[in-house]
Amino acid sequence: MSEVTILLVDDHPVVREGYRRLLERQAGFRVVAEAETAAEAYRLFRETAPSVVVMDLSLGGPSGLEAIRNIRQWDGQARILVFTMHQGSAFALKAFEAGAAGYVTKSSAPSELVAAVTAVARGRQAVSADIAQELAAERLAGKNSPLDDLAPREVEILRLVASGMATEAIAEALHLSPKTVQNYHYGIKAKLGARNDAHLVWLAASAGVLGAGFRFEP
């Protein structure tokens, strides 16, 4: 396999440095750029055309889901590996729906990340063992997530709304009109059966959209 060039996307510089060192210790791997926001990831992808994007989902402002959508709209062959703290299978499914080729959690062994980058660079899919196990268990149990009926863009808007961001700020961040954001907001509430915005926040928190550290206070 020829050299694998990597765009590393994470909003923590120290974390990026650690993963850069891990990846560049592998023969044939080279990190060609680093980004800390979804917008920067999109710009640097266009500038560097990496073999693989290693993408965190938790970024400042629009998340990695939005970055995946934008990159894949620009290049339908882009190979994106999600590398994140989000351990829920619902997020993994949304990442794949947005266009990711792999999903590895940060609790995985370093060797799993390296193997996943190699697999994605070769055009294959990759899932860390913990997520594969959760997907299998939930399928066998017939469990459903509140996110199942939402598109990746709707999940992103749900996350921003539930985190308290104003309609105008969401519109600016996602390059939409405020009216479009409002329409998404109402549509998401209808799909989830949310009685009001407080109930919507509770549903978002329950689904893990706001992160593991979030606590809902009614």
UniProtKB/TrEMBL annotation:
Residues forming the Response regulatory domain are 5-121
Q: Which residues carry this modification: 4-aspartylphosphate?
A: 56
SMART domains named among the record's database cross-references = HTH_LUXR, REC
Q: Name one GO biological process term.
A: phosphorelay signal transduction system
Domain spans labelled HTH luxR-type: 143-208
- Does Flavoprotein count among this protein's keywords? no
Q: Which residues form a coiled coil?
A: none
Q: Please name the GO terms that the record assigns under molecular function.
A: DNA binding
Keyword list, A-Z: DNA-binding, Phosphoprotein
**Domain of life here?**
Bacteria
What is this protein called in UniProt?
A: Response regulator Input and output domains: CheY and HTH LuxR family
